[in-house]
Each structure stands twice: as C-alpha cells, then as structure tokens.
Fold each of these.
Amino acid sequence: AVVSTQSTGEYQKFIQTRQQFDAQLNENELVLGEFGRLKDSAEVFKLVGPLLVKQEIPVAVSTVKKRINFIKGELERCDKNITGSEEKQARSREALAKIQQQYQAKMHPAGGAPQS
C-alpha cells in the first residue's frame, strides 16, 4: 500500500507538471500567432526584470519558437514519465492482487479448515 501511495503521488506530480507545460505551450503558441498579426512598423518589447526593453520582431519570434520546441520536448518527457508511472502502478496492483490471492488460498484452502 505504501508503494501504491508513493506511485499515486508521483503520478499526480507528473500530471500537474504536464498541465503546467501544456498551459505554457498554449500561451506561447498564442504569442506566436499574435506576432503574425503585427504590422511591419510595430514595436515589440521584452520584459526584463522591471524594465521593458525593445526587441526586434525576428528575434522575438525566434525566441518564442525555441521556447515552444523546448516545451514540446518537456511534454514528451512528461508523457514518458506518466506512462512509466502508470505501468509501475499496474505492476503494484498485480503484485497486491497476487498476494491477496495467496492469502485467501492460505486462509480458505479447498475442502479444509482455515490454516493459521
């Protein structure tokens, strides 16, 4: 039961991390779409600490595209972790079921009284 609880906590952590990366991906894809709507004369600013610093549009687009690629890689990693955690939980459930069957067989043998 302890292994199952740890696996469940680990699984929840992986799901939460994946949701955060998914939200970041959606946000960055939205920003990339907004860049496509800008006029040539538009100015783009980047927040650096408390300051807004002017940034060239191609540089900003490149930065967002790199960020999107990074996030997609992290999402793949999260998916692998989630799959691994699901498999670990399945193995734990199978092991627990086997132990329960062995216990039941010992407690209620066919045609006999319970053993102690």
Note: The radius of gyration is 26 Å.
Amino acid sequence: SSGINAEYGGSTVILPLLFEATGYNPAAFFAPLGCSRILSDTFVCVSPEARGSKLGLRLVTASEELAKEKGGCTHAVAVSTGIYSQRIFKKLGYTLVKETLYDEIRMKDGSPLPNLDRVPQEHKSAMLFTKAL
C-alpha cells in the first residue's frame, strides 16, 4: 500500500481523521433514503505490479454484487485515499460528495498531519463517494 494510510502505519491513526474530514457518516447520510443496509468500501489496494490489470475494478464490482445479492444493500459509500482507488470509483459511476486535501486535515490537537512530505505526490486527498446499487 502506498497511500496516506501506509505512511501512518495503518488505519488506526489516520482513518478516523479522514472520516471526520470527509464527513463520512453512512447511517446519517443514507437515513433519508430509507436504507437499512449499505455497502461501505474503505480500502481498495492493488500492488503496483497488478495495476492496469483491472483487479481493483473487479474487486469493487464483486463487492457491489455480493452486497446486493446477499446483503440486500441498495447504496454504497466509499472513502478513497489515493488516485488509483479514486479512479476505480469514478469509473464505476460513484458520485463524488466531498474531496479533502491532506494538508487541510488536522490532528486532534489542531496541528497539521506530520510527515506529509513522505506521502507520494499522487496521493493528495481523500474523497467521499456514494452510489445507488
């Protein structure tokens, strides 16, 4: 994994900040639609060697199909932290709800995210997407 989550040692530190910054709250977001179940995609990561094979696209598509068939989901929500997964959600017809640049996100004490200079340049923002399945 090469996105911002990898730089911060996984999701336990940065993910809550990304959710807050993008306004990720599936229950509140979909309540007006009367959804009782939703698909929540949080991580899509394909190794650099597998990029271009459409593996990520196939993984998300399979998740959507399973969510509809087995889980009765009618909507999906995703927070995407890198350009490669963002491209996948756009190709699959997800709607961009909000984009937050990493340099706009603050730690709980108000300080900027540390070590942003070590995050690859192509990973500059977190995007919140939704889609009706």
Note: The radius of gyration is 15 Å.
Amino acid sequence: GTVERDSPVDLQCMTRYMLQEVTVWDVIGELVLLTTEPPPDNPFQLDHTHLDNLPARTQAIVTGSLLHAFHSLLVKNNTWTSPDLLKDYKHLTLRHVHTLPCWSSQCHVTAFALDMLVKTTL
C-alpha cells in the first residue's frame, strides 16, 4: 500500500514558545497565513454578513466573545498588529454596544456616548 509521510508545519510561533507566551490564536493566525493564497492582511477577518444575520441575543454573545479574543490578540499578545485587525476590533466593539439591550436609563450612558468612547480610545 501507500506509506503516509509525516510533514509537520514549521511555525515561527512554535520556535518562540520558550521565549514568550504563545497562544492558540498565534497558531491559528500563522496557519491561516501559511495555507491561504494569497495570504490575507488579517488572518482573523470577520464575516460581518454572518454577524448581521444572527438574532440580537446571539449577536450580543458572539460579539462579546469575539471582543475577548481580539483583546487578547491586540493588547495582551501584541503579535498581531494588522491595521485591518484593529479596524475589525473597533467595528466589533461598536456592533457589540449596539446589540446590548437599552440600559441607558439605568446608568445614564447613551449609545452615542459609548460610540464616542470607543472611537477615541481605540
């Protein structure tokens, strides 16, 4: 029969793991860059159409989860510095704020004020 050959992928992030923290996001991002032709500017590009089609509650949960992941990519890890990733992070933050139920009467914060906060801090 045929003999299967083991062909491990040489990932740069795995050669750095003894010197710095390497996350699963580093592995995923590098795999996307190595296996996609042409390589994308942002290996974590979001499908905004898919997010648009989610029910409001699901969208709030998904955007919150994605924000957490993007936060670890951009702030904690600082390996991924693509302007497109930062743009998606900003857009995702605004989307998340708008998917939350209206609670401005409870804390006196309007969606406009949150938009301004996001735009000036990111």
Note: Residues 103-107 have pLDDT under 50 and may be disordered.
